[in-house]
Recover the amino acids of this structure.
């Protein structure tokens, strides 16, 4: 045991003395959360809106007036065809369009019912979401006012369409994505690199020709990175709750437990890579191309898995981050319990046993 | 030995100095090397050999002092210096994953040799090295000794005025080492000045003149025979030990 | 008593075993001996050391270290040998003291316990004990690496090219340290490409291209040279070498320090003198004692 702690201590020396890497490791989650968080600004003020008023009657004029009276919107442009919407969205200045169909006033008076369509540029999902929410609130407000005035129950149905990103992926989705990415980088990449570095510098040779159990040497190398990822998970969760207002809706214990499971999967992947890679560059390359890239592309974090072609969807099944991502989304955002994520948990546990087994099987007590 | 032209100096250094912060790696060294001379540049690890060699080959700017290499100034004309010298070290020499011919063609191309010249000289060089049959083999398949000899041929392929050799024979077997030195003699006889560092003290004896650096300064510079006489030593090894033991600094 | 016994060891590399690193090597080293394995890069020195230190498996043959089999009893061997690989395998970002403490703990011992053994070496670097290993000079790194390899008082010490890339002064100091360690009863196997270091060993094995050329005491090797060796010098050494190579009486000629060495077919110093006189060059001719390097070259050319 004394030996084991000597190894862990030495590993911490390596980490603390390589200041640059340590700062990157600790700051990475913070930077990622902040970049994602502020790229998705949710402050809306005097946002420009395009209006296609097909009826041009008293009711529509009144509604547009109310929209303009709010501090949120500025009616910028009137349009006359559906095609125009795309072209103004592509210019990028206008992010929301409102379509008022023909006979709006008539519909409202005769049938007590009218329709409004809101079309948003959802390439920035947060902004689109906020804009449509504000606009619907104003329409609701208008509806309430005329109901009150005319003592009749008017209904305006608002139909919303999100262009470009119908799923409205945003803050709620990137937090689990960042967690998966950070854990993978810290655990897999750093563990693999630090083991391979000892092979490169020749210290592994000396370690092997010592009474120390080789497997224990390697496991001792993983311990500090395990602890470091715990720090990172805590940072991410604190930032997401207190800075981004993304709450942990489900059980915190379950969330942390699942994160530990994914950390172990990542660590065993790191060990596996280290048994195969002969140089730090190879280890880095395998970690980045073989793991980080699929994690970003195929875990559902950037692109919805449902929309992928079948081959990619199939491949995504072997990406561990896919399952972790789905667990975190369910537990953290949707607030559901283990009974809903047992399948994913089981898959991750299976992966852990498989990768760890493979790593141990490939582990060499000699050089070749 | 090689015909040394005493009145033509191809390297002249005057008070050449290089400081890194408050550490003086090379401390006011002055010397001259004649055309066609084999000049041994010795010193313990950390004595400043590598730094001095980098300045002379135009890779590093001196802090003060002057030096002319192949007739060019190290401050202003380092690009011209690079074109007129060859360089070979134990660590960096050839691309392992290129063939013998590809390596030669590549390096000759860097120095702007014409394809006609390359073709003609390649045949001659490969013939001299007895490598004609191996011309299309990857360099990594050659034994170490052959690699080193080939690397030397590549370093002087463009017929430079000076060739810098940084520990060219480290770890090479004694027979190949001699063959290598034979090539150095031939190169010097053809008028190429050879500037060489080595850890093998017997190789110091093969040089026309030897300088020994201690703590950034040149403490001794003479023919091997004269050095042995001056320091009342039987071999260059003894001369070196007597001088290097005085060293006070222990950098690497 | 035998410390290391090597029987018919073969080691090949490559998918089709096309590269032979060691072909049928056998020798043994006695307890307390300072044994040198001398040969150029690529001769198979490192492969041999890795087999002896249980890091590689031989294709064929068997090896025992301190009576333990390197394959079956690798754990026992790892408890009792010290090993310094070709590159000084230290943790560059740990200080001198931290490196030493770490290695002591790994070997289930403490620096205090065996301080007597390393005192001689370690005291030279102790003033720099808080310096990072990466910031040490080559000679100091070598001393620290040796201290780390000795910290558990190994019975056999394997040093793979400890003096490569180290200057002549540090090399000399290093060999003096080895001599003192030998007096402590530690068996030492050391490899080197420097032929002149052979004279520091009790016995040496000359190795080239995976084959052992000769095993003997340094004196014994020199005695088997068996040919007349002459040393010649003149003002034009290159021409002299050409002349020597053309002389029929000369079996082999090569530069050797200040002189050229000529290995004679017969005991025919005067024949060579008259041959060279005919060539019209002024020269100096004397008899020379062959050394290990002469022997190595002679063995290389006959094998």
């Amino acid at each position: 045991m004394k030996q084991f702690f000597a190894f862990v201590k030495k590993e911490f020396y390596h980490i603390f003395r390589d200041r640059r890497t340590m700062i990157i490791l600790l700051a990475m989650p913070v930077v990622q959360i902040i970049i994602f968080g502020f790229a998705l600004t949710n402050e809306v003020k005097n946002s420009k809106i395009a209006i296609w008023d097909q009826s041009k009657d008293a009711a529509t004029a009144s509604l547009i007036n109310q929209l303009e009276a709010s501090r949120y919107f500025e009616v910028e442009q009137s349009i006359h065809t559906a095609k125009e919407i795309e072209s103004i969205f592509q210019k990028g200045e206008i992010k929301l369009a409102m379509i008022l169909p023909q006979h709006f006033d008539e519909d409202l008076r005769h049938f007590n019912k009218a329709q409004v369509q809101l079309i948003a540029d959802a390439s920035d999902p947060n902004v689109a979401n906020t804009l449509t929410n504000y606009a619907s609130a104003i329409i609701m407000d208008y509806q309430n006012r005329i109901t009150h005035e005319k003592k009749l129950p008017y209904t305006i149905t608002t139909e919303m369409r999100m262009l470009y990103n119908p799923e409205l992926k945003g803050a709620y989705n990137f937090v689990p994505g960042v967690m998966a990415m950070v854990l993978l980088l810290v655990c897999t990449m750093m563990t693999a690199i630090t083991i391979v570095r000892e092979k490169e510098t020749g210290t592994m040779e000396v370690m092997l020709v010592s009474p120390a159990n080789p497997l224990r040497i390697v496991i001792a190398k993983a311990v500090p990175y395990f602890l470091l990822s715990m720090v990172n998970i805590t940072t991410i969760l604190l930032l997401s709750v207190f800075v981004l207002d993304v709450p942990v809706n489900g059980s915190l214990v379950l969330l942390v437990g699942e994160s530990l499971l994914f950390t172990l999967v990542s660590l065993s992947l790191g060990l596996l890579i280290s048994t195969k890679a002969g140089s730090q560059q190879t280890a880095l390359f395998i970690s980045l191309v073989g793991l980080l890239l699929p994690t970003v592309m195929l875990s559902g974090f950037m692109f919805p898995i449902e929309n992928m072609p079948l081959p990619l969807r199939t491949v995504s099944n072997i990406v561990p981050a896919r399952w972790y991502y789905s667990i975190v989304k369910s537990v953290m955002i949707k607030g559901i319990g283990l009974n809903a994520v047992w399948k994913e948990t089981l898959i991750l546990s299976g992966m852990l046993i498989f990768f760890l087994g493979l790593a141990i099987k490939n582990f060499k007590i000699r050089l070749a | 030995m090689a015909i040394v032209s005493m009145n033509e100096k191809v390297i002249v250094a005057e008070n050449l100095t290089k400081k890194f912060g408050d550490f003086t790696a090379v401390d006011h060294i002055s010397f001259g090397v004649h055309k066609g001379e084999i000049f041994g540049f010795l010193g313990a690890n950390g004595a400043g050999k590598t730094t001095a060699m980098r300045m002379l080959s135009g890779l590093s700017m001196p802090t003060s002092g002057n030096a002319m290499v192949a007739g060019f100034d190290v401050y202003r004309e380092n690009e011209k210096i690079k074109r007129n010298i060859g360089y070979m070290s134990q660590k960096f020499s050839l691309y392992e994953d290129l063939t013998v011919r590809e390596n030669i063609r590549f390096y000759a191309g860097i120095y702007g040799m014409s394809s006609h010249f390359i073709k003609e000289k390649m045949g001659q060089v490969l013939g001299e090295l007895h490598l004609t049959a191996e011309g299309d083999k990857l360099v990594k398949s050659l034994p170490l000794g052959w690699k080193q000899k080939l690397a030397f041929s590549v370093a002087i392929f463009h017929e430079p005025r000076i060739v810098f050799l940084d520990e060219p024979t480290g770890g090479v077997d004694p027979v190949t080492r001699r063959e290598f030195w034979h090539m150095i003699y031939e190169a010097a006889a053809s008028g190429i000045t050879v500037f060489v560092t080595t850890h093998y003290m017997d190789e110091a004896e093969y040089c026309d003149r030897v300088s020994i650096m201690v703590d950034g300064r040149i403490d001794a510079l003479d023919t091997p025979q004269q050095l042995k006489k001056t320091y009342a030593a039987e071999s260059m090894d003894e001369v070196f030990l007597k001088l290097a033991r005085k060293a006070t600094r222990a950098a690497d | 008593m035998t410390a290391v016994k090597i029987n018919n060891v073969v080691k090949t590399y490559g998918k089709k075993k096309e590269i032979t690193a060691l072909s049928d090597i056998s020798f043994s080293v006695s307890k307390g001996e300072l044994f040198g394995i001398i040969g150029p890069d690529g001769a198979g020195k490192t492969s041999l050391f890795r087999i002896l230190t249980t890091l590689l498996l031989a294709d064929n043959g068997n090896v025992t270290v301190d009576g333990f089999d390197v394959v079956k009893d690798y754990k026992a061997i790892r408890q009792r040998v010290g090993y310094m690989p070709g590159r000084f395998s230290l943790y560059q970002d740990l200080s001198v003291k931290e490196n030493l403490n770490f290695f002591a703990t790994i070997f289930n011992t403490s620096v205090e316990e065996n301080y007597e053994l390393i005192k001689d070496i370690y005291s030279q670097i102790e003033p720099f004990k808080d310096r990072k290993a990466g910031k040490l000079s080559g000679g100091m790194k070598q001393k620290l690496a040796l201290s780390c390899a000795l910290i558990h008082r190994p019975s056999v010490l394997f040093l793979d090219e400890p003096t490569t890339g180290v200057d002549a002064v540090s090399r000399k100091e290093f060999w003096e340290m080895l001599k003192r360690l030998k007096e402590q009863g530690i068996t030492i196997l050391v490899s080197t490409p420097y032929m002149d270091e052979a004279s520091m060993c009790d016995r040496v094995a000359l190795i080239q291209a995976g084959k052992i050329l000769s095993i003997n005491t340094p004196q014994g090797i020199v005695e088997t040279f068996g040919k007349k060796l002459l040393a010649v010098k003149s003002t034009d050494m290159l021409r002299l070498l050409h002349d020597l190579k053309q002389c029929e009486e000369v079996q082999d000629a090569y530069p050797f320090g200040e002189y050229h060495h000529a290995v004679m077919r017969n005991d025919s110093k005067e024949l060579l003198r008259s041959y060279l006189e005919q060539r019209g060059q002024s020269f100096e001719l004397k008899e020379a004692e062959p050394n290990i390097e002469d022997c190595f070259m002679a063995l290389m050319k006959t094998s």
